[in-house]
Amino acid sequence: MHHLKGNRFRLRSLMAYIFLVFIGFYLPGHAEVWGAGWKYLEKDDEGIWSYDSENIECLANNIIRVLAKKIYARKGVTAAVEKYGKDYMNLDHVLTVWEIHCSQKKFRLVSSIFYSKDNSIIQGYDDEKERYFAPEDIPGDSYIELLHKKICR
Q: The pTM is what?
């Protein structure tokens, strides 16, 4: 993925922002207690990915939108600080909306909001209107590939 720069990726859509903030405050902090809609996807040294299986949006042309959440482990926080700067020192989790192009095996980042341990927003990106991110091939052996397999049936 491209390196994200704060000025190029301001939140453009107030509704998407409000939705993700609401989801971020509404959901408890651990995948095991999120309830029936949140499904475990993958755990690696950087954290745990889950996705909201009950709120998957089907768009035209076999494109699906899904909300995912990553809870960061210490190694993931360290990597985020190295990549994005010291503002990420208290990183806890990120809520991300992905578009998965099922038949083409492509994906696109729609929006993401990074949260600190006190649930305040560190940074948010919304690509709904600007469409900076073009669909990319889904990398093999990635959590995006796992997500594709789970939701594209």
A: 0.73
